[in-house]
Amino acid sequence: MFRTCLMSPRKGSDFAGLSTAIVTPFRDGQVDEKRLAEQIDFQIDSGVTCIVPCGTTGESPTLTHDEHERVISLTIQHVAGRVKVMAGTGSNSTAEALRLTRRAADEGADATLQVAPYYNKPTQEGMYQHFRAVAEAVDIPVCVYNIPGRSAKNIEVDTIVRLAELPNITMVKEATGSLDQCTAVLGATNLTVLSGDDSLTLPMMSVGAEGVISVAANLVPSVLLEMVQTAAAGDYTKAAELHHRLYSLCSKMLGLATNPIPVKAAMQMVGRDTGEMRLPMVPLDDADRAILQETLMKFGMESAIAGQLQASGA
């Protein structure tokens, strides 16, 4: 069902649909394994295609190496084949990315999400050689994650075209914010493109992307899934209605602070608390919390918020 009209089938099309970049719950400074399992079940029950642990939304930069591996292992074990798992195992060190990715593949991950090397800003040739090394080291599909706002450098279309020639590189998580780049990648390669920006999912699908790796799905997976499925079925009138509803939520919620600060705050407000942030990430201040609560209520979450307030005695 989730297939582009431009070139079908594409490499990686079995990951089309809604994937959730799942948050990592913390409690008293430790990974809250029980809460992680509950959140995974919530996502699977909502019908998502794939769970993506240890992405930016999972606060991977603050996880120790042991925690990173443990979260991926726990996710794979608890999912138990019910949906796919795309493990976030990228790094700005190729050696570290290789170690994490080999471990995830051995654990049974269905694919790996590989962020562009950050901070050290490699050349385009360096980007190519980095992703090539990972793709040639494992037998699972590789999703190249292009997010220059976090990594400080764009993976240019020509580089992605070269990478698309490698059999294991099958997907791009497109988070450049550029519909032009998304269009160019789709026109020049046979890769499956997944949106990396919730607010741009429908525009990207209109030119051939096949879904999203979503932050907001931690909170409202069913609505996002309906939009993606409706667009994939060709009903862009209904999909646009859902897009505009979600846009109001995502633009206000995710615009309040750096991801995943706002989505974690929102989950707490509606009774799906995933615990504290880890420094250097800090909670929303009171003013932004008030804006977020109003945003959630306008989206239709009044009863969930009221129930949580009652449960907490507020």
UniProtKB/TrEMBL annotation:
Catalysed reaction, written as an equation: L-aspartate 4-semialdehyde + pyruvate = (2S,4S)-4-hydroxy-2,3,4,5-tetrahydrodipicolinate + H2O + H(+)
First-listed, main subcellular location of the protein, grouped into a coarse class: cytoplasm
Gene3D superfamilies according to UniProt: Aldolase class I
Enzyme Commission number(s) of this protein: 4.3.3.7
Binding site for pyruvate: 57, 213
InterPro entries on file: Aldolase_TIM, DapA, DapA-like
Residues under site feature: Part of a proton relay during catalysis: 56, 119
SUPFAM superfamilies: Aldolase (SSF51569)
Pathway(s) it belongs to: Amino-acid biosynthesis; L-lysine biosynthesis via DAP pathway; (S)-tetrahydrodipicolinate from L-aspartate: step 3/4
Gene Ontology molecular function, alphabetical: 4-hydroxy-tetrahydrodipicolinate synthase activity
One GO BP: diaminopimelate biosynthetic process
Entry similarity comment: Belongs to the DapA family.
Record's subunit section: Homotetramer; dimer of dimers.
Record protein name field: 4-hydroxy-tetrahydrodipicolinate synthase
